[in-house]
Amino acid sequence: MSRHDAFKKRGLTDDQNSYYIARKRMIEEQLKPAIRDPLVIEAMSKVPRHKFIEGALVDQAYSDYPLNIGEGQTISQPLIVAMMTEALQLKGTEKVLEIGTGSGYQTAILCELAKHVYSVERIGKLSNRARRVLYDLSYVNFTLRVGDGTNGWSEAAPFDRIIVTAGAPAIPKPLLMQLADGGMLVIPVGNEESQMLKIVTKEGASYREKDVSGCRFVKLIGEYGWRVE
Ligand code: SAH
């Protein structure tokens, strides 16, 4: 039986078939050369990235670059999502805070690998759309909120992991305060043009900082981020 027939038999349409192939190619060509954690590879093989993208860009869902998701925002490129997720070293027991829900794609990857995901987005329209897509894909271990994520989410703190998916001028203090002991924060820090992806680990009263790689994100806008334009 050809692969095409096998897909037909499982009730998948040609469309789903071609997205499946594109996703497999993304894994092999973009991720496998750089990503070692098999759980991250598995999660990214599973989550249908094309569901988080709308309109004419859907066909580019698995390409090696970021895409517009409306409201002047972008969904990060697959490799960046994978690198940030790998940096979090998730085992499945963690309570995670994400700042910048955007399309909800990174949220879905986190839902696959952590116990519960709290995610904050400042643009209501994006948060609502992300919620719909995540529910459609049957995720239940997440809570979304609209607001300024640079203040964290004090009612749900402390967090085992915090991931910021927008570029900050400096590490927002409230996020450090809401990190559990032994917890980790992954955040791009720099100017508006380019940032350094940093991992901060909390050890008792001290924080250890490590640089991962250069990157370019949309701006983190808020009280402890960039000022509103
Ligand atoms: N993780 C997202 C990436 C979205 S881009 C994805 O996979 O699609 C970054 C997002 O951060 C944008 O949607 C932007 O609106 C949001 N953002 C910027 N500043 C924020 C803040 N202070 N609090 C919450 N969200 C913020």
Keywords:
alpha/beta; binds S-adenosyl-L-homocysteine; single chain; 229 residues; globular; Rossmann fold; 7 helices
Explain this structure to me?
This protein is 31% helix and 26% strand. With 229 residues, it is α/β, with parallel strands linked by helices. The strands form two sheets. A seven-stranded mixed sheet has the order 5-4-3-6-7-8-9. The chain has a two-stranded antiparallel sheet with strand order 1-2. It is globular. S-adenosyl-L-homocysteine binds next to strand 2, helix 5 and strand 4.
Brief synopsis:
The protein has 229 residues and is of the alpha/beta class. The protein is 31% helix and 26% strand.
Give the topology.
Blueprint: H1 3-9, H2 14-31, H3 38-46, E1 67-70, E2 73-75, H4 78-87, E3 95-99, H5 105-113, E4 116-121, H6 124-136, E5 142-146, E6 159-164, H7 173-177, E7 179-190, E8 195-203, E9 206-215
Bound molecules: S-adenosyl-L-homocysteine.
CATH class of the domain at 66-215: Alpha Beta
Structural class estimated from helices and strands: alpha/beta
Placed side by side, the strands forming the largest sheet appear as 5-4-3-6-7-8-9
Instruction: Give the CATH H-level superfamily of the domain at 66-215.
Output: Vaccinia Virus protein VP39
| CATH architecture tag of the domain at 66-215 | 3-Layer(aba) Sandwich
Distance between the termini: 57 Å
Shape: globular
Mean pLDDT over the residues:
94
**Ligand catalogue:** S-adenosyl-L-homocysteine
Q: Approximately what portion of the residues adopt beta-strand conformation?
A: 25-35%
Helix % is 25-40%
Write down the Rg.
17 Å
How many E strands? 9
The helix-strand sequence is HHHEEHEHEHEEHEEE
Tell me the number of helical segments per DSSP (H or I, 4 or more residues long). Answer: 7
CATH-derived topology of the domain at 66-215: Rossmann fold
Outline the biggest β-sheet. Answer: 7 strands, mixed
Stretches where pLDDT is under 50 for at least 5 consecutive residues are none
